[in-house]
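One such given next:

>
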Amino acid sequence: MSRLTALRWLVVIGLGCVLLRLVHLQGVHGARYRGLADRNRLRVVPEEAPRGLIVDRHGVRLADNQTVFRLALVPQEVESLESVLAPLSELVGVPVDQLRRRWQHQQGLPFVPATIVPKVPKPIALRLEERRLHLPGVVVLAETVRRYPRGRSAAHLIGYLGKPMSEELPLLKQYGVHPQHVIGRTGVERAFEAYLRGRSGGGVVEVDHRTRRVRRVGYRTPEPGETVALTIDAHLQSLIETAFGEQPGAAVVLQPRTGMILAVVSLPAFDPAAFVDGSTDDVQRYLTDPSAPLMNRAVSGLYTPGSIAKLISAGAALEHGLLDPSRTTECEGALQIGDRLFHCWNREGHGPVALIEAIRASCNVYFLQLGRQLGARRLTTAMSRVGWGRPAGWPLDADASGHLPKRWLTEGTLPAGSSPTS
């Protein structure tokens, strides 16, 4: 075989190998490599949807959204960082060093704006827009953030927002939540997160080999969250909070016929906006405040029962036939039990009182004697039957269960699945 013939065969074999490799890459693994190329060529720029509104029974807004302006730099469009930061510092009143640190911290993909001032007043935002031609790479972005028009009113009921924790992200990503998003952490914001969050949108951009934006190839408009209407009366809520003044405490107002909750007051309260703004100092102050403003006293607090216990003892005594409603008991202002003297709220005494008058006057002595007649077992059983000693079932946050003495509870007192605490 001549050398020319051998060279021809060598070329044919080489071309055959190349052809087989092309068939293998494009025919067998073509779909896989096309997907990898698209993922390398296309980038998704998410855009968070506005959260849904929270309103009271009359449509008064308890939580809504407001438009704020943030100042950002597009890395691929910034020609000289220092020549841009100096005039920006003068306009927004933030030192150049601080702007530079924020840029270094926020800078990511070349085409994604890096926020250097999270909230810019509208007049300054307009001035920045006017000077954009002289500040390459500078963009002013309008976005919606959470707003609480009534400040601290009903704060524990509404709740607050926060960034998702790293251990939550694998699950939340299935619902379109990204690390930069905020989600409900407590209260209504947390319980109705799936309805309030809405559906995020955003754009798909094509980038070159240096990840610089070339063009936008698609966009989906974010869908706002749904409105959540509560049974709360915002005006009544504010009246009760004003009546408390600086006094810590809690109050819950129910509509007797329907059981609807009209007001849930817990004081001291907090400002939910502090968590939206990311004000570390304010949040830290709430966390370290000895008065515990983040605690919902209406739900998580445990208190000695008041005069409502008198109605329970009266009902139990009537049920067991131990009480004649017309029989009177003498109230002299105090009652000696063992070595302790228990006073009535009326130190002068109510005199002879029957059941109806004792309820009307809330006579301590009358119901102390009635409780002695009932005995610990029957009294504790009656309290358990009306729900004392177990959680009330508050749907928004964990509620405390309270305490009843277990040894006095009769078998079958508690509902299935419940257990008394001690």
